[in-house]
Amino acid sequence: MEPIVSQPDVVSKKGKFAYSVGHVLNDLTASMWFSYLLVFYHRIVNFTNASAGYLLLIGQVADALATTFVGFESDRARKGLFGYGRRKTWHFIGVICVLGSFPFCFNLCIKCAYSDLWAQFFYYAMFIIIFQFGWSCSQISHLAMINDLTHKDGERVALNSYRYAWTVASNIFVYGIASILLGVHSSRDKTDITPEDAPIFRTLTFTVIGTGLLCMIIFHVGLNESELPAEESEHRLQLSITSSGRLRRMTWKKFLREREFYQCALIWMFTRLILNITQVFLPLYIIDTISTLNRVYVALAPLCSYVSGLLASFPMRAINKRLGRKVTMTIGLVFVIASTILFWFIFQIQPHVRIEVTLTIACVLLGIGTSTTNICSFSLTSDLIGLNTECGAFVYGIMSFADKLANGIVIAIVQQYNPCKADATDICELYYRQILSFIPGGVAILTILMTLSIWTTNIGGNRHEIIIQSSTNSLPYDSSVNDTEYNERTPLVA
């Protein structure tokens, strides 16, 4: 009998910490990308609303296509370059691309700041495509590592929670630095952002890159990638317990034939759409809808949202265990709907409550809701993959493909029909109020309906069956025999 190589049930504290910071560079850059891309390209570079939206769409499409490619290739590879882990190799490629391209995305065009806008558009689009390819390399490989590191459900939820906690902390860091920079370079009554504020974005960009680089060093030095995927370790462990047994192996085609694959994909897409739409349009909502507030609230409001989200992420493991994924998801969606109601009625409440207080409460509710729903959607996808990590990156790639494409299309459509100019008007006030209320609120309702559709479904459970053979009737598992033939030849014990 070959020696048993078993995956550890519990990931060490050092491993958890190193893993949790492995997505920080992506989180920091994504925070700037979604929160300030439209502000930067419309108000600093002076692109039209539609052009700024198309730049975001180009980035999202590039990201969506790259996630599918990386998902396939990461699963196909059994080893990384020069003996490096297969997941960490793709992660490292992504880090190099992000570090080399992102500084150009949020700085004025080098030696072409006064060129025609169409030339600047292609300049920024080139660096955006490189950035998004690198971003997807790091994201998919980092997500796929969860199921490689451990097969225990509680440990996977913990890794998802820690990962999301650092995502929230990264957003808090970006908004904290942005609020300081905007506050230092702002007069008391300044409410708008103009081309004169380009140095603020340059400083913020290099701060983000430096901090992210430090976290990437910690990740690559501090975490050892498993040499044996979790499903293979678990299979060998089961072989040591029974005379013969196996877990059902999966291919990408088999995943595409499962109904819950599409249900989980829609839930993932909807929860990311809620997060990204609110992240993109909250700064514009503050600038154009609540135009009386100082522009520092462009950073302070999302800061409140992410602080509350960070606090909500800590008890998430216990809540998931006690209430289950689906109940927890529904509670989070209720918080999201409550926040969108406040965004819509903010002026009606103003005579009774100061507008700053109402805005803060709405952002806190939004932060709790988005934090809860995103952790649950990650955990549902992890459940879907289960021990079948041979296709883990593919599953995460398709999920990301759907959410990136949906986000890009929705935001591009909103910007295409955006009636606002640089100066705030009554039309802008109503437009951004509708966007920040109706889109997240409507998507939250759709997500509740989709969650109800899987309420009694055991996600991924139909593959977690061990086939045990008696000593007299045992048949060795032959990889050339397909699953149906093998099940017919072998008794199944539930």
TrEMBL record:
<dbReference type="GO" id="GO:0015293">
    <property type="term" value="F:symporter activity"/>
</dbReference>
<comment type="similarity">
    <text>Belongs to the major facilitator superfamily.</text>
</comment>
<dbReference type="InterPro" id="IPR039672">
    <property type="entry name" value="MFS_2"/>
</dbReference>
<feature type="transmembrane region" description="Helical">
    <location>
        <begin position="122"/>
        <end position="144"/>
    </location>
</feature>
<feature type="transmembrane region" description="Helical">
    <location>
        <begin position="53"/>
        <end position="72"/>
    </location>
</feature>
<feature type="transmembrane region" description="Helical">
    <location>
        <begin position="359"/>
        <end position="381"/>
    </location>
</feature>
<dbReference type="GO" id="GO:0008643">
    <property type="term" value="P:carbohydrate transport"/>
</dbReference>
<feature type="transmembrane region" description="Helical">
    <location>
        <begin position="435"/>
        <end position="455"/>
    </location>
</feature>
<feature type="transmembrane region" description="Helical">
    <location>
        <begin position="265"/>
        <end position="287"/>
    </location>
</feature>
<feature type="transmembrane region" description="Helical">
    <location>
        <begin position="327"/>
        <end position="347"/>
    </location>
</feature>
<dbReference type="InterPro" id="IPR036259">
    <property type="entry name" value="MFS_trans_sf"/>
</dbReference>
<feature type="transmembrane region" description="Helical">
    <location>
        <begin position="92"/>
        <end position="110"/>
    </location>
</feature>
<protein>
    <submittedName>
        <fullName>Uncharacterized protein</fullName>
    </submittedName>
</protein>
<feature type="transmembrane region" description="Helical">
    <location>
        <begin position="393"/>
        <end position="414"/>
    </location>
</feature>
<keyword id="KW-0812">Transmembrane</keyword>
<dbReference type="Pfam" id="PF13347">
    <property type="entry name" value="MFS_2"/>
</dbReference>
<feature type="transmembrane region" description="Helical">
    <location>
        <begin position="204"/>
        <end position="223"/>
    </location>
</feature>
<keyword id="KW-0472">Membrane</keyword>
<feature type="transmembrane region" description="Helical">
    <location>
        <begin position="164"/>
        <end position="184"/>
    </location>
</feature>
<keyword id="KW-1133">Transmembrane helix</keyword>
<feature type="transmembrane region" description="Helical">
    <location>
        <begin position="20"/>
        <end position="41"/>
    </location>
</feature>
<dbReference type="GO" id="GO:0005886">
    <property type="term" value="C:plasma membrane"/>
</dbReference>
<feature type="transmembrane region" description="Helical">
    <location>
        <begin position="296"/>
        <end position="315"/>
    </location>
</feature>
